[in-house]
Write a structure and sequence with these properties.
By secondary structure, this protein is an alpha/beta fold. It is 43% helix and 20% strand. The protein contains 12 helices and 11 strands. A 6-stranded mixed β-sheet has the order 2-1-3-10-4-11, with helices on both faces. The protein has a 5-stranded mixed β-sheet with strand order 7-6-8-5-9, sandwiched between helices. α6 links the parallel β6 and β7. The longest helix is centred in the C-terminal third of the chain and has 22 residues. It starts with a helix and ends with a helix.
């Protein structure tokens, strides 16, 4: 019964989205700003969704992904914030924005925009080189306990992995030597060269290195094991609670400039919902270890409020 209901809802979503496409919107191309560099964790699923939407857009119009990186996503976000609220510019919004606000490095929240929808989840992982002595997450913990501050943990400073480190240090009573290994295009090179001992990155960003035999995944920041790596245990299995893992979830949503017409927001939300329900999109995402995770505007707005509260509470407790 549940499967039948889900199928009916998916078909209804596609039909509703199609009618929204045909109702005169869009009248020109839509720009989706990815506030990070091309080819990275946020860019890959954004282009999969944008391709589907472009192929189903009315009047031959497209959804174009425009990468505007800098300042940990803040430059691209500001560009969208300053754009006309005409329903033709949208922002890829990561959970990392909530983290930055909790840290005090951003002075705005999602309330400076109009939330549109949530559309995808990217699972983070802890990765080592294949020749590393660390075979399990517990091996890393034991090493960090034996020699505090010596295990070199590679992260992109200012990103969600930084909060994951805080969560691990608080949970296990350890201290890493955190090293900023830059953006999406250089992280793996740092681990390959041995400049860091351990690295946190999205599974989708390291899977080719795992398949080639260069890297080994120790654990994934997920409640369930991934079908693509069923042998890899989860952080939940390592004893982390759902609350602790709430600051480790790499989710991406869509935001619009404040004051964007409600009709445009509803139409774009339905476009992403239709894409998330499409079998081809789901297959493409799964091949890259992403999960279509659609929430409409009201549900997503409620989710954002809770997420920001969790990040602020976590920061107040562990970042004193």
């Amino acid at each position: 019964m549940k499967k039948l209901f889900a199928l009916v809802m998916a078909i209804a979503m596609v039909l509703t989205a199609t009618s929204a496409f045909a109702a005169g919107y869009p009248e020109k191309d839509i720009t989706l700003v990815n506030p990070y560099e091309a080819g990275g964790t946020s860019d890959i699923p954004s282009r999969i969704f944008a391709d589907y939407i472009s192929n189903n857009c009315a009047n031959g119009h497209l959804m174009n992904v425009n990468c505007i990186g800098g300042a940990g996503g803040a430059v691209g976000a500001q560009a969208v914030m300053d754009s006309p609220a005409d329903g033709y510019t949208f922002l890829v919004a990561p959970a990392g924005f909530a983290m930055k606000y909790a840290q005090g490095t951003l002075d705005w929240t999602y309330e400076a925009f109009d939330p549109v929808c949530l559309y995808v989840t990217s699972v983070l992982s802890i990765v080592v080189r294949a020749d590393s002595p660390y075979r399990t997450y517990q091996d890393v913990v034991d090493a960090a306990k034996a020699n505090p501050g010596t295990v070199k943990m590679g992260i992109a400073t200012g990103g969600l992995p930084q909060f994951s480190v805080y969560a691990m240090e608080a949970h296990d009573g350890i201290k890493f030597q955190t090293i900023d290994i830059g953006g999406n295009t250089v992280k793996s090179a740092e681990l390959l060269a041995g400049r860091v001992d351990v690295m946190i990155d999205a599974v989708g960003g390291v899977q080719e290195y795992v398949k080639s035999g260069d890297f080994r995944i120790l654990t994934v920041f997920s409640a369930e094991r991934l079908p693509s790596f069923p042998e890899v245990p989860t952080m939940l299995e390592a004893g982390f609670t759902s609350d602790e893992m709430s600051v480790m979830n790499q989710v991406f949503g869509v935001w619009a400039p404040k004051g964007t017409p409600a009709e445009a927001i509803a139409a774009v939300s339905k476009m992403f919902g239709a894409a998330a329900a499409d079998a081809g999109v789901v297959e493409q995402l799964g091949a890259k270890n992403y999960t279509a995770t659609y929430m409409d505007t009201p549900e997503y707005t409620e989710y954002l409020a809770a997420m920001y509260t969790n990040f602020v509470n976590f920061a107040n407790e562990f970042m004193k």
